[in-house]
Amino acid sequence: MRLIKGVAAALLAIPLLAGAEEIGSVSTVFKWVGPNDKIMVEAFDDPKVEGVTCYLSRAKTGGVKGGLGLAEDRAEASIACRQVGPIRFNGELKDGEEVFKERTSLVFKTMQVVRFFDRKRNTLVYLVYSDRVIEGSPQNAVTAIPILPWPNRP
């Protein structure tokens, strides 16, 4: 009981991050029992930067373990962020600030997206990577958005 209360308190302390919306998926491996392995495409809006949407593609492990949320997903992910409207900052941007996080195993592994602001080039840079409590992964992907004026449309 004490462990459950500690975990609940830790989860409440996590800052609000962007939530992902599933755009679609494709099956990659057929499983006789449980869901198939698949590649998911998800979208999320940067919570501190209006006018930016990021798209992630990542592997999702199926089968019995995957269906129960016990499987460990692969570390590979791809990201593409785009300007979808006028860009406005909601608060101060911090380099390396986490904008998205999702667990990819029961306890020890997460996929994260962090943001950097390249002031010299007036560009937002987003990095997706996977980490583990014990051992991280060097697999990552990056995307960049130059901040451009957004045309006024009637």
UniProtKB/TrEMBL annotation:
<dbReference type="Pfam" id="PF05981">
    <property type="entry name" value="CreA"/>
</dbReference>
<dbReference type="InterPro" id="IPR010292">
    <property type="entry name" value="Uncharacterised_CreA"/>
</dbReference>
<keyword id="KW-0732">Signal</keyword>
<feature type="signal peptide">
    <location>
        <begin position="1"/>
        <end position="20"/>
    </location>
</feature>
<protein>
    <submittedName>
        <fullName>CreA family protein</fullName>
    </submittedName>
</protein>
